[in-house]
Design goal:
The protein is mainly alpha-helical and 345 residues long. The chain has 14 helices and no strands. The protein has one domain. Helix 6 crosses helix 7 and helix 12 packs antiparallel against helix 13. It holds the Pfam family FA_hydroxylase.
Amino acid sequence: MGLLHTLYNELIGFMGLRALIDMYQTGNYKVLLTLNGLLGAVSPVLPLLLVIEIIRAVTYRRFKIEDYRMPFIIFVINRTIGRFLSIAAVAFCIGVFEKYALFKTSFTWYWLIYGYIIWELGHFLYHYWGHTVRLFWCLHATHHIPQSMNLSVSYAHFFLEGAYADVIRTTVCILAGVNPPLLFFIMFIDGSWGGFIHVGENIIRDGRLGFLNKWILTPSHHRVHHAKNPLYMDTNFCNLLNIWDKVFGTFQYEDANVSIEYGVSRDVNTRNFFDIYFGEFYYLALDVWKAPGILNKIRYIFMPPGWSHTGAHKTAVVVKRAYLESLKQEQSAAPATTLYETEQR
């Protein structure tokens, strides 16, 4: 019975139903008039969408167990350790840095706008460094390894990534004056939208969401972010507001002529949990071990993924530059071919 009770609690927790069940059992529906009650009522939306996504995939015979198996295993493992580290990281940063805040904000709509812009800056920094610093990529790569896009991917993270992300995002917000209650509300919005943008084609085939595609980060933009196509590498680091991607030149629309290929550039055994979860650490350790000299060993840790002490770099910047250059050459060659064919006629 103890095991069944534990499984029941985990299922209720995963589905976000705890607040609704407590409200039903106590009969206190006035809690919906409070912020915590409202957030609790919204929590089941994403898990429910995941269930609908799976049902639709099964119905239309597009369901593949491998698309969901590894994210589920990762979620189960992270459930026991990762969540406590993130909570501790947020609490630590608030306790240490709140006294150094530039000024104080309040829980109002205009400070919410300010706070969210600052939060997105913190998210951009964490996410950008997660792609451009090899050590941080080891923490983030687990999330990018799935070779399809669906809502279960939002649960696939290395257990330390949440703490690393929250240290950066919380520190930036607290130092910029975002007070804790406002910060927690922003975190809820960010977490909900951040999960939703992983929605797969079994729910939303066209992830552009109409006119919203020009104003916010949509599922289409995040599908681009998860792609390993050279054109799409290291783009769309924001979560909801695309302001910082546009400021720093990392914004990229989905190109109808470039089919998205999900995953990472290295070969991964998608059936092997250890390769998915620890593979990047293994290859980093291998590069550090083989690198000549202490400076090269340090560079492998902090330079972008694909950096090599030999100079034969395969970083995202190098790969994308080569792709764009070849594309430019193809385009410049096309008119010449057309002119030649015209003269032959």
